Amino acid sequence: MKLSFNLKLSQSLKLTPLLQQSIKLLQASQVEINDLINDYINENPFLEYEDNLSISKPRNQYTKNYNANENQDDFYDFFENQTKNLTLKEFLIENSGVFSMSEREQLVFYYLIDAINDDGYLITDFHDLINDIPISPKISSFELEAALKIIQACSHPGIGSRNLNECLTLQLENIKDTKNITKIAQIITKDYLNYIPANKVSELSRIIRVSEDEIQTAIKLIKSLNPRPGQIFKAIEKNDFINHDLEVINKNNQWEIFLNDEEFLKLKIVNHYDELLQKENSLKDKFQEARWLVKNLEQRSITILRVSKEIMSYQVNFLDNGEEFIKPLKLKDIAEKLELHESTISRVTNNKFIKTPHGLFELKFFFSKAVASTEKDGTSSKSILAKIRYIVNNEDKKKPYSDEKIVLLLKQEGIVVARRTIAKYRDILNIAPSNQRKG
Among the CATH numbers 3.40.50.300, 3.30.70.260, 1.10.10.60, 3.40.50.170, which is that of 370-437? Predict the structure, then answer.
């Protein structure tokens, strides 16, 4: 046998613990940050609240979902949004904009969305949908299935399900573990869901041929899932719940942005950390963890402020005049300006809220695609939404504007949109057709 050596060069990306922590903190909302700080305070002797705070902020009403492998880095929905500003229907319609669809496909998509109830379930069967959708040739069940798969894939797990089994199964598909608990849970949800209320653990153990402990763990996982996923879009008054992260104020005719740090917890390293290290050398890792956390929290604030200032510098017309004057803006524009990755901009703007003279907005609200117009850079889709809302609010209620008329009114302002686009935007704004608005 001849022995030989081979050299091989390869590249791989490994996230350091510091970078992993930085990413988690950056994408978390302030409410979630407070929860994390409370957890770290309880676990790390080197950390304490600034100004000797001793009371904990109220925990987020949305709790972390169960994870079959608590040691893995990528938690399932670990930083779930604490509130939604869109209805379920609005969310699905907005998400459909990322797909390039023919008019036929759009029609199928919107009929499916209309058939999904507030709990997130498809309540109309395919047979009725085939007869209801007014198009020729008739829609096939294959087309409906394909469109439904898109809805299920681009929304929260479980939305678009036809029954509870499918709802839970879709959520389980998003959970990974190394102990096969998820696979056991999938078997139970598919064929033996009715065994759970009766607590038939022994019988399930015998049928599936796994231990009773594994069955118990799988049942715990199933019970942690959301049987009504659409309810996370239940309307709430955002100003009653959301603490804004930033505020923009006009000072001496200049717009200035400030971090809102009054309502949020702050951390610092304890003064007697030297004593702790001398007494217990094994605490070095905890001390390093504490330093990382304080540093990452500081960096998080700096990054959020930098990104927010750059976004608002693009949206001065909005600050001066309101939603109708939002400019088209892409993540890429801000990323290139600040020399950051687009994924960083996405994490910063998701679930971070800014208080403006025109209301409270999520930072990602200020990103929108351009629509053809006489403006050099086009007109923002968010601006068009605001203009449609303004037109309808100020129309003659006895003679409401048709979609065709709204198209003409926008064209007079140099904005070119199709009638079906107006209909789609009306749906997003929850505005009824003209024949239903007639007073």
Answer: 1.10.10.60
Contact 382, 372 (CB under 8 A): no
Contact 171, 229 (CB under 8 A): yes
**pLDDT above 70 (res 331):** yes
Q: Could you count the other beta carbons within 10 Å of the beta carbon of residue 410?
A: 21
Q: Distances in Å between the alpha carbon of 9 and those of 5, 15, 200?
A: 13, 19, 54
Segment 144-197, tens digit of pLDDT? 999 899 888 878 889 999 888 899 999 998 887 767 899 999 999 988 888 888
Kindly list the domain boundaries of the chain, sorted by start residue: 84-234, 239-320+339-365, 370-437
Give the three-class secondary structure for 325: helix
User: Per the structure block, which two tokens stand in for 276?
Assistant: 């702790």
Q: Are 67 and 75 in contact (CB under 8 A)?
A: yes
Residue 431: name the closest of 380, 381, 395 by CA. Answer: 395
Kindly report the number of other CB atoms within 10 A of residue 392's CB atom.
18
Helix or strand (DSSP H, E) at 329:
none
Q: Angle between the 164-172 and 212-223 helix axes, to the nearest 10 degrees?
A: 100
Whose structure tokens read 């053809």? 372
- For 151-216, what is the HEC assignment? HHHCCCCCCCECCHHHHHHHHHCCCCCCCCHHHHHHHHHHHCHHHCCCCCHHHHHHHHCCCHHHHH
Banded model confidence at residue 113, pLDDT cuts 50, 70, 90: confident
Q: Which pTM was predicted?
A: 0.50
Task: Measure the CA–CA gap between 222 and 226, rounded to whole angstroms.
Answer: 9
240: pLDDT strictly greater than 60: no
User: CA-CA distances (angstroms) from residue 289 to 17, 47, 270?
Assistant: 9, 10, 13
Strand segments, DSSP code E, in 294-369 are 353-356, 359-362
Asked if pLDDT for residue 7 goes beyond 90, the answer is no
| Length in residues, the chain | 439
Contact call for residues 66 and 171 (beta carbons, < 8 A) = no
12-57 tens-digit pLDDT: 444 566 667 777 788 888 878 888 888 888 888 888 887 644 333 3
Residue by residue, DSSP assigns 201-266 as: HHHHHHHHTS-HHHHHHHHHHHHTS-S-GGGGG----HHHHPPPSEEEEEETTEEEEEE--SSS--
